[in-house]
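Researcher: We're teaching a course module on how sequence relates to structure. For the next exercise, students receive a sequence and then see the predicted structure as tokens, so they can try to spot secondary structure elements on their own. Here is the exercise chain.
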Amino acid sequence: GETPGPLQGVPIGVKDIFATAGIPTEMGSPAFAGHIPDRSAKVIERLEARGAFVMGKTVTAECGFLFPGKTRNPWNLRHTPGGSSSGSAAAVAAGFVPAALGTQNNGSVIRPAAFCGVVGFKPTQGLIPIEGALTFSHTLDQPGIFTRCVEDAAFLAASLADDGAQLSPSIPACSTPPRLAAVKTPVWEQAEDDAKQNFRENIQTIQKGGARVEEVELPEIFSHAHRAIRTIMTVESALNLEELHRKQAPLLSSTLKDFIAEGTDTGAVVYLQAL
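Model: And here is the predicted structure for the students to work with:
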């Protein structure tokens, strides 16, 4: 028979903004109710070519943006799993699947991964194909991976990366102590004391493991990053969701409609400066 692929038989959860042929893809919005694509997103085709299969679609915030879905945190049902890739993170944390796909344009992989206590990897832009996922912000949208351990994330990323990418499917031993940066962002002071203490303890754990950790404070320009990202996202969502907004506005949340309206009202100069 055929040689098994590197992901042979692995069940994968897929965030419900990736097109999946023959499987409902509803983008977390009633505007897409009953939508069944004829063709899968490129990354799904690549998964299946490597031997994996789609175990099921996972809950996403509305259009991969902000308005939350019904998923709860498997560690505490009173808590949020984070968004927008909430279902993917929760599914891995609950043990439903060993790995899942999500997307990120503003923390939608790393945030739910942190909230659910799993590994979240947002790779370099363009490393894993985004074609076939709902486009919200064409500048920022990027696929991401959820797994229960770093080794699995490395293996899955290497299996899905574009041809020519030099990714090792395993984590090699370091010949010298790794040098890491512990970055305090401009919003560090807004973090709760418990979060700050956990951050410090994690640094100490890494240092005990043999790594060199240098604390870094970002320059002042990074204090404007959130504003720039919001500008990019509002303008590009207004462009990419224009037809959806025009035809299906009653089915969209007021949160999303207000965000699109903000982008429509933003001038080209402000947008280009944000880029």
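Model: If you want an answer key for the exercise: The beta strands are 11-15, 53-58, 99-104, 119-121, 142-147, 179-184, 212-217. The chain has a mean pLDDT of 94.
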